[in-house]
Design a protein that fits this description.
Layout lengths: L3 E7 L2 E8 L6 E7 L7 H12 L3 E5 L10 H10 L2 H17 L3 E11 L1 H12 L3 E7 L17 E6 L7 H13 L4 E6 L17 H18 L2
Parallel strand pairs: 3-4, 3-5, 5-6, 6-7, 7-8
Antiparallel strand pairs: 1-2, 2-4
Helix pairs in contact: 3-4
Length: 226
């Protein structure tokens, strides 16, 4: 079943997003959070892939209609994003998804990429309705997750050759989560670059790492989103 654009309430206004529902008509809910490019076809495709695996996937449009293929413009859009407003968009998306007739269960998963990975973890520290959190090479200079308030288990997927979210930063995050008694599983893929999961970017896409990461994500959500 092809996904479609929907609108949902957000703090007195509305936000749009891409919703993909499995052919079976029902499944656990997952919030898919964009990279700095915006709600581009790749993110919609990830939603469709989740739906093909039996999950109900919603990707909120955090840039409200804007997207780009230019790294310079993407950087500007990311830095202009107000984190408090993004959190409200994500909160509205979670409420919409849990209220949707197709969604089963009382909690949703979150999964995000780069900027969205940081927001996935941030959202899990702000919203107790997140039951499982996946972070793909998540980083944003203005996103500071309240780790002591984290309740959901975390699956982190990172790249050895990432100059933005370096292995040292991953190890530090893992150390902090362990000290806080949180449930976290981190994987750093050898010889992989930042954004290795994005199959629309031939320069960085790593098929082996992407396939392994996808399998881990599906297993993680299957175990955590009952």
């Amino acid at each position: 079943m092809a996904g479609q654009m929907v609108e949902f309430p957000n703090n007195g206004g509305t936000t749009s997003g891409y919703l993909a529902i499995p052919d079976a008509g029902k499944g656990p809910g997952v919030i898919v959070i964009q990279e700095w490019w915006g709600l581009v076809p790749h993110i919609k495709d990830v939603c469709d892939r989740f739906a093909a695996e039996g999950l109900v996937a919603l990707a909120p449009d955090l840039y409200h209609g804007k997207s780009t293929t230019s790294p310079d413009e993407a950087g500007k859009l990311m830095m202009a994003l107000r984190i408090d407003e993004a959190e409200k968009d994500l909160r509205g998306a979670i409420t919409f998804l849990l209220d949707h007739e197709a969604t089963t269960g009382e909690k949703v998963g979150t999964v995000g990429f780069c900027m969205g990975g940081a927001l996935s973890l941030y959202t899990a520290t702000k919203n107790s309705q997140v039951g499982a959190c996946v972070v793909f090479y998540g980083g944003h200079p203005n996103v500071k997750p309240d780790l002591p308030n984290l309740q959901a288990p975390v699956l982190g997927l990172y790249a050895e050759r990432d100059g933005f979210v370096t292995p040292d930063l991953v190890h530090e995050l893992e150390r902090r989560l362990t000290e806080l008694g949180k449930t976290a599983e981190m994987h750093i893929y050898p010889d992989a670059d930042h954004a290795f999961f994005n199959d629309t970017r031939a320069a960085v896409y790593n098929e082996a790492a992407a396939k392994d990461a996808w399998r881990r994500v599906l297993d993680f959500f299957s175990q955590r989103l009952k």
